[in-house]
Amino acid sequence: MAPGSNATLRKLHPVIWWYALALLVIVLDQLTKVAAEQYLTYARPLPVTSWFNLTLQYNPGAAFSFLSDAGGWQRYFFSGIAVVISAVLVVWLYRLPAGQRLLPAALALILGGALGNLWDRLVLGHVVDFISLHYAGAFFPAFNIADSAITVGAGLMILDSFLAPRQGQSGGTDPQ
């Protein structure tokens, strides 16, 4: 083994679990999308409860079908954004102190969700959605496991911003 490689392994060890969480999100996302395409008929709701359907939908745009009818350029635009964000998240996760839990979990969920939807865009040209929530005739836009992971990850990031100690605070009284 080369000198210094033990230090690299020690540094990599804690982050590998967060990368594994991101990979788990990708695998679950892709497996559920394959199942949705295999067992559901496009745009035909399969009621699960009075407020939850499984409904296969294809989204060539972004969240809430933003730019879904933009003519195709949005596929490459959103793919590029996902690649950049994913690269930033990989590096950010690697650089986090080993003792943190909430922020790396948030970043791993967002990373897995971004890569799950990126795969769809690159391979299929659209994102596969199949979870449909509704109440009193009002329908929330269909989504998938990747979208859920991104949403939960964003929520955890917000929570972490409130719980994390603020840098630069003295913790004492006002000096004036």
Largest sheet: 4 strands, antiparallel
Number of strands: 4
Q: Kindly name the structural category.
A: alpha+beta
Ends apart, CA distance between termini: 57 Å
* pLDDT averaged over residues: 86
Measured by DSSP, the beta-strand proportion falls in 5-15%
Q: Order of strands across the biggest sheet?
A: 1-2-3-4
What is the total number of structural domains?
1
Tally of individual helices: 4
Q: Fraction of residues in helices?
A: 55-70%
Radius of gyration, in Å, reads 20 Å
Q: Rough shape?
A: globular
Indicate the multimeric state: single chain
What are the segments in which pLDDT stays under 50 over at least 5 consecutive residues?
Answer: 168-176
* SSE string, helices as H and strands as E: HEEHHEEH
Summarize the structure in words.
With 176 residues, the chain is an alpha+beta fold. The protein has one domain (36-163). It is built from 4 helices and 4 strands; from the N terminus they run αββααββα. It has helices at residues 5-39, 73-95, 102-124, 145-163, and strands spanning 46-47, 52-59, 127-135, 138-139. Strands 1-2-3-4 form a 4-stranded antiparallel sheet. Helix 1 packs across helix 3 (102-124) and helix 2 (73-95) packs antiparallel against helix 3 (102-124). The longest helix has 35 residues, at 5-39. The chain is globular and about 55 Å long. It starts with a helix and ends in a 13-residue tail after the last helix.
